[in-house]
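can u do me a favor
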């Protein structure tokens, strides 16, 4: 998979001087399909991270620790995970911080 910067350079070059075997619509479609594949990969990666977070929460609860979101405020989310409270911009980042603090 090419980086975004590489894709932009290739796209600009293809539109400026398209390969003879391609029509402009085909060139655009190829680039759009690659962008969609990259977006799907990012979504799958975030789903995997969320699954890891949920597994961690489940493991902590199974060990008897009290786990509860304390609430959301102007500054973000607060999270109590048994070792103390963690505040962060989002609940996801609070869970990540708690996982790091746990070691």
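np, heres the sequence
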């Amino acid at each position: 998979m090419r980086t975004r910067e590489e894709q932009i350079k290739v796209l600009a070059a293809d539109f400026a001087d398209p390969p003879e075997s391609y029509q402009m619509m085909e060139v655009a479609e190829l680039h759009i399909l690659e962008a969609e594949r990259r977006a799907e990969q990012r979504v799958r990666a975030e789903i995997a991270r969320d699954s890891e977070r949920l597994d961690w929460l489940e493991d902590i609860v199974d060990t008897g620790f009290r786990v509860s979101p304390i609430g959301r405020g102007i500054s973000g989310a607060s999270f109590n995970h048994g070792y103390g409270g963690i505040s962060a911009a989002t609940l996801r980042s609070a869970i990540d911080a708690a996982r790091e603090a746990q070691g």
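Residues 24-62 form the longest helix (39 residues). hope that helps!!
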